[in-house]
Amino acid sequence: MQILPCPYCGPRSDAEFHYVGDADKPRPSRDCSDEQWVQYLLMRRNARGAARELWVHRSGCGRWLVLVRDTVNHEVQAAEPMNR
Amino acid sequence: MRFRHTPYSGWRLLREALADQQGWTPAWEDRDPSNKYDIVIIGGGGHGLATAYYLARSHGIENVAVLEKGWIGGGNTGRNTTIIRSNYFHPQSAALYDLSVSLYESLSKELNYNIMFSQRGMMEIAHDQPELEAMARAANAMRINGVDIEVIDREEALRREPLLDPSPRSRWPICGALLQRRAGTARHDAVAWGYARAAASRGVHIIQGCEVLGFRQDHRRVIAVQTNRGEVRAERFGLAVAGNSSVLAGLAGFELPLQSYTLQAMVSEPVKPCLNMVSLSTSTGSYISQSDKGELVMGGNLDRSPSYAQRGGFRITQSVIAPLLEMFPCFSTLKLMRQWGGTIDASPDNSPIIGPAPLDGLYLNCGWGTGGFKAIPAGGTMLAHLLATGRHHPLSEPFDYRRFARGELVDEGHAGVAH
């Protein structure tokens, strides 16, 4: 169990959050190739160590956020609102 | 120079018993890396070692090295719950996993190493009638795929595992089950060591404490790996590093559709034999079997956040154990003895990725997710075929990573169960 920071609600239980994918991933245009779409949809950085991840505070405020998190020791350095 | 080990037999056991056990030799030899091999396999777990063995045995390629950053079988091969089964939904998966079960059936004899494969059978338990009916549909698909599977009713399930709570008022009542008689458990360390010993005796170098730090490429072809023990060149490279596949792919300059998560396992204190089979609760994902040492071995769902920690959190530990105690109330007095975690590589369709990498000379065997142990003989066979011939084995063709761009997913997300 871990307390995760929500930029809107403050510290909350990790059970309220849901991991979505890599943060800062630009969505390709509608006429992109299959390869570009798969790159966006399925390919992951899956970093060992420092990662920027997109999460949603699903059972809380319902808003999306970016966690700057270490995937080895699970330390969270920062929580930011998702860029639009 | 080849390493010769002592063959194991009843006769040998007797001879050594009479000769003060002085004649045993090490099972395999820890080697230093040479600078050039025909084939280098990255990852000394079950899949990597099996690949090396099948390269030597089936393809006659013995100038092979297995590079392992820690010790062999110290990753997921030594951290899983040792269950072997092939009850998968799609024909492509059924063919692959059923090959694996078949290879496991003859593995002790083939490797001259007792992997303690016990085909005690496995029950996937349904807790209500709709779930049992959905299972019957899955069972029909599996039978068409040639997998031995049958639907059994509540009485048969309770007869096979008498410690199950028969009360219809239980939180997770027993309604019926899917039975695979050929499923079972094996000794995980023995699988790694058996393959290592058999591979080493055919000339394969097993190199521990050798971590790959980078790939040297020439016109998008991998020609060498840089390691903490120097550069190692080869004609072809195989990657069999499970949860660390994305890390190695990152070093080589490409991405994979994988996400690494922690999968926990845990054991109770040891007790006398009390469970006959492997039991899995499909609704909750929790499952239980008893090891030969007497511990109850339990596992279940993944931890929820991406992780390379190799240890899991208490919330999942609790969620694994709670439904099992509802199904087996008498285990509530047992103490939990150990709990640990491994890093698994989850793919988008819960099927493995086997085939050429986006770089020439590099071949992938990854994405087995929560079910890598049961697939070791098949994964090794497939990767060995790829490395030896440069082409797919017919059974690995559907699992090429290019299936994602083609939309030809082999989705085992719901029909097959995890683990």
Provide the fold topology.
The complex is a heterodimer of chains A (84) and B (419).
Chain A: E1 3-6, E2 10-13, E3 18-22, H1 34-41, E4 50-56, E5 64-70, E6 76-81
Antiparallel strand pairs in A: 1-2, 3-4, 4-5, 5-6
Chain B: H1 10-18, E1 36-42, H2 46-59, E2 64-67, E3 83-84, H3 91-105, H4 107-111, E4 122-126, H5 129-144, E5 150-153, H6 154-160, E6 176-180, E7 184-185, H7 188-201, E8 205-207, E9 212-217, E10 222-227, E11 230-239, H8 245-252, E12 259-268, E13 278-281, E14 287-290, E15 296-302, H9 314-327, E16 336-346, E17 353-356, E18 362-366, H10 376-389, H11 403-406
Parallel strand pairs in B: 1-2, 1-11, 2-8, 4-13, 11-18
Antiparallel strand pairs in B: 3-7, 4-6, 5-6, 9-10, 10-11, 12-15, 12-16, 13-14, 14-15, 17-18
Describe the model:
The complex is a heterodimer of chains A (84) and B (419). Chain A has 84 residues and is mainly beta. Chain A has one domain (3-81): Folate-binding superfamily (Folate-binding fold, 2-Layer Sandwich), CATH 3.30.2270.10. Chain A has 1 helix and 6 strands. Chain A has one helix at 34-41, and strands at 3-6, 10-13, 18-22, 50-56, 64-70, 76-81. In chain A, the strands form 2 sheets. Chain A has a 4-stranded antiparallel sheet with strand order 3-4-5-6, with no helix packed on it. A two-stranded antiparallel sheet of chain A has the order 1-2. In chain A, a hairpin with a 5-residue loop joins strand 5 and strand 6 (76-81). The mean pLDDT of chain A is 95. By secondary structure, chain B is an alpha/beta fold. Chain B folds into 2 domains: 31-113 and 187-258 and 349-406, FAD/NAD(P)-binding domain (3-Layer(bba) Sandwich); 122-181 and 261-346, D-Amino Acid Oxidase, Chain A, domain 2, CATH 3.30.9. Chain B is built from 11 helices and 18 strands. In chain B, the strands form 3 sheets. In chain B, strands 1, 2, 8, 9, 10, 11, 17 and 18 form an 8-stranded mixed sheet that branches. In chain B, helix 2 (46-59) runs parallel beside helix 7 (188-201), helix 2 (46-59) packs across helix 10 (376-389) and helix 3 packs across helix 10 (376-389). The longest helix of chain B has 16 residues, at 129-144. Chain B is globular and about 65 Å long. The two termini of chain B are 40 Å apart. The chains are: A mainly beta (84), B alpha/beta (419). Chain A binds chain B through residues 1-2, 14-15, 18-19, 34-35, 38-39, 42-49, 51, 53, 69, 71-74, and chain B through 244, 246-247, 250, 255-260, 304-309, 313-315, 348, 404-407.
